[in-house]
Each structure stands twice: as structure tokens, then as C-alpha cells.
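Practice problem: predict the structure.
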Amino acid sequence: MKVELIALNNYKFPLHNNNKKAENNFIPKDQLNAIPAVYYMPINFGCCTAQDNRNYFDKVRNVHCPCCGVEMITDKEALIKEAENVKTASEFVEFLNKYKENIPKKFGNYSDFASNLLEARPELGIKDLLNISRAGANKKVEHRMQDAVEYVKACKENNDLSQKDKLLCDEFINQTNAFLEEDKKYPLGKYKKILQETLAKLETNNKWEIYSNAKNPVVEANIYKSVFNYDFERVINGEAPAYLVLKNLFDFSQAVETRMLQNLSEEKEEEYNTLLVCSKCSNSESNGIKKLLRAPDEIEKINYQTYIADMSREVLENRYSGSDKYPLYVNGLMKRVTKGNVDASKFLNESRFKTKIFYLNRNVIEFDPVNIDGIPCACCGKSTITHKKKVEIFEKIAEANNINEMDNIINDNNGIIREKYMPVINKFHSVVKNNPDITEDEVVKILREHTAGDIKNVMKNNLKIMHRLLKQKNLSSNDKNKINEYIAGVKNDFIDVNPKKIIDYKSYNDLISSTLKNMELKNRTEYINLVKIPVKNLLVVQTNLFPIADTAEKYKSELKVILQDIIKMSVATKDHVVARDKDGTNDLNNLIVLCKDCNQDKTNFDFKYWIHRHPEMKENLNNYARFITDKIHENVLSENYFAYLEELSDYINRITDGEIEIQYDV
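Answer:
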């Protein structure tokens, strides 16, 4: 027997050469159970059939299982009715080829096997064909057991096992070999009993890994064999054997509505907690959803992405009768539960689907606080301006006759300038004060050189941070290599800043991703933020110092456009506390006012993460609430906004697990 060696941790184990990949590379149970809950949702994995959404999926077609990738059967009755007419071997093969995509992938390419067999031996009747298939399935079980024996032998040789464990391995090998000789039907129950008496009693840390890899391929092979174990009594009573085998085979591909998580706190999320999964993966023995959520391989991630793409199509073609946002929100739930490990966002970017979601969200609700001049940003706390006020300042800058007039306009509005732009503005004031006759081009040149110098200083400081980190004790060799790669990358590409060019932030971010993000250090995120965020802020400022040529040409002045762009970052904007693509609603209590600068920084970051990056928000949210309260008393805002503040306070308190409590005096 040819054996293929597949590396696993510190030892190798054999798999039968029919396998394209390690079929059951499961992680140990003690690790599986250690995965924490995410947000307020308890991680209670299960394959309980979802009842509430049954009619939503009634009309969907050609949807692939998110776990194994098989094209699921959603109209089982029609298929079974068609299978009843299959009597001969040729009709049987024709039926298999017609529904080839619906045959579970782990059963191998059975349709090709049957086609090739009938082509080579056209005289075969249907019973002969099925008997040969049954014998082949039985042989597959035998091969998997032989593989398990070879695997345990390799484990015994390559692992530092105790004497007791080695004896248990020997016992498994001896009992399985005897079983292979004694009972050619290979009943699964007897094999499981051997496992329980031997490998289940191992003391090694790899116990469950060894146990699973000896058990699961045999279980899979037995499931395949069960397809051909039709009831001979039923054949005698007139049912065709071909029909019985086809029914057994395609039962595994039957679509079953299955909950992703059990016991969700929010009943309204039940629809988005439901996946359409094939019967085989919904079975408690294989439990494909549990594997997808806990330890998916790349193929399983692709299977899930295909499912989301399929459901996006079904929504667009009006065959899914639930919410049009189902693919969007179920993916948001999946991302949250797996912490981004499983994600199909790029499959939601199909233009028609995006357009449909856009139109669904067009009924934007009125949010009056954003139209009040001076309302503080809920993030940075600085005063904001309305769009109308911004236009007034823009017009003043555009009409300014000289640099001194521009300087006076900016000086009058210093209080609204965002913090990251203050070094540039202070430099601007200083240059104009010391040299009133300076030209606009000279000012722009000085501002660019000043910012380039700031970037260089920050890069030098980042190198110091990394050199200090290198001196830490117990730093792994991998981490040292990654830090040195980062240092070399900064020195080669980012330390010598050309003030005439914009530094490409993507290139710098890619450097961090390929080096520091691959460290094993527990607090690596802290160090990444130290060297990333200050650079990102400066590069945003630098970008504003290079205005679009057409806009600068319109005003006949680069400096005027630069100053306008800096003012623009102070405009009040409304932002969703929880982003729409992270299950955030379009309700009033999910809206706050942020300045344009903070809004651009936040993008769709998780709110709880954003709070941790900006601890000042705890105080600034209270100031924001007090400002709204004052405006209600001044009759600028309706008294309905008291209810808004109450709901917003409850909402933020809940999603931050009680960390943020907004206090205000009604």
C-alpha cells in the first residue's frame, strides 16, 4: 500500500493516497472549548434546525453548502420523484451525471466511477453495478482502517510517548489488525469500541489529535458505505435498488436551515443567524458549522464565500423571501464571531447588490443636532461647524487678496482646527508673522518641508521604539527577525522624506503588515499602534498639502485650497455608532455627531475598539450629551431629543459592556 506522509506538529502521519488533503486535521477538544464568546453573544455552537425562517429559503436554487461546498438540493421532492423512474444501469449513470454537483465532495467522484465502470463493462445490470460499488465502499473502509494503523505506528515512533501510551498504541494496532481479519463487514460500532479502549486512554497532550485522525477518516468512509446498504426487503417489495441508493446518496445534500449560534440574545437577529447547510454538515457527527466557526481551512473559507455570493444572487433575483440584507448581515455576524477569520465581504461588492442595498438605505432619517453650529464632536470634543458655516469661511478665503488676509481668517477660526493640523497652522502663522511679504509658493514650500521634517522625526522615533523592543528578554527569534525587517524597510524607503512628494501610506502599512503584524508578541498591537498612528496622521496632513491641480487652478492658488481643506475637516457629520455593515441600524439611537476628521479616521471600526483608541471619548460623549440638553432647553432642538439621549446612552452602555455611561442633567 502506498502511503503519503503529511506533517502534523512534531510528527508525521500517513493518509491513504486517495486523499487530496488531510481530511480531518481537527484541533484538540480542549482548544476548541477554550474559544471565548464575542460581544454579548454566547458561543453555543450547535446544529439545531432553525424553524422560524423556513419559508424564506423555499424558492432559492443552486446554493452551495457554506461548510463543504456541495450544491445543495432545495427541492428534494422533485428530485426523489425523478429518481423513482431510474431502473437500469444506464439511467442510473445518466441521473448521477445530471446531478453531479449535488454529490457530497467527500464521497469522491462517484459519478465518474460509475460512468467509467459502465463504459468498460456495458453488460452490467443495475444490481451488478451497485454490488461492485458496495464492494468498493467496503474496501474504502478497509483502507482507512489500514491507514489508521500506519498512522498510529508513525505517532508511536515520532512522539515522545510514555511506556503506557506506547502499549495502548500497540493494543490499538493489534486489535484493529485482528478486526480487519475477522469481520469483513467492518461495523463502525466495533471500531469505535476499539478506539475507546485504547487511544481514548492516552495520556499525551496530543491525545485527541491522534484519536481524531484515527477515527474520522474511518467514520467518513462508513458514511459513504451506508449509501449502498439499502434494505433488501424493500427491493423485494418492488422498490428499485437504484432509487434506494440515489435517495441515500442525495439525502446528504438536502438543504437544512441551521442556526449558526444558539441562544442569541436578540430575537430579531434570528434570520441572520440562519445558514442553509447540507444535511451531512448539519449532522451532529460532522457538525460542519462548528468547524467553520472554530478552525476552518482555506477550502472551507472559500465554500462560505461561495454561499454568500449565491445568496446575494438569490436576493437580487427575488428568490429569497426574507430581508434583502440577509447576505450582508449574516456575513457581519460571521465576521464578529470568528473575529474576521471568516469573511466574504468582497463577495458583497457586486454592483447590483450594492446598488440594491444603497436604495434600501436611502430613506435617511432627519438628525437635527448635525445642523447646530458649535456642537462638539463626540470623539475629539472640539467644536464643529455646519456645512453652511464652512461655505462662508471658504468664500472668505477665496476672496482674500493676500497672505495676511488669509492668516487673519484662519486666526479667527483657530478654535475649530483639528489637532493633527495645528503644527501646520502654527507654522503658517509663524511664517507670515516673521515675513509679511513672503509669496504663496514660498509658504507652501515651507509647510511641505516642515511636515516632511515631522515625518522624518516620527520615523526616527519609531526606529528607537523598535531598537528598545529588540532589547527585551525572551523575545523569540521570529519576532527579532520581523523587527529587523521593519527597521530595514523604514531605513530604505521612509527615513529620507522628499518634501516634493507624498509618501504612499499603503506602502508603509504593507511594511507593517508583512513584519510587525507577524510577530508572536502578545502586546504586538500596542507597538504597531505606536509606530502606525502618528505616521498615518502626518501622512493625512501631508496629502492635504498637495491639492488637486484642477482645484488649485480654479482658485489660482494652492495655499487657498490647502487652508480650505483644513477647515473642511471641522465640519459636523453624522456617523453610525455601529457601522451599517456591522449590523448597525439606521435608527436615531445609532447616530452621533463627529467632525469630518474623526469620521474619516473611524471609518467602520468597531465602536468598542474605537473607544479604547480614544479614551477621551468617555468625557467627550458626556459633553456632547450636555450640549444637546442645553439646546433642548433653548428650544433649538425638540424635546424628543431627550428620548434620543436616553436611548443613545442605553445603547452605548450595552455595546461597551457597561464601560461607557453617558451622564447629563435633563
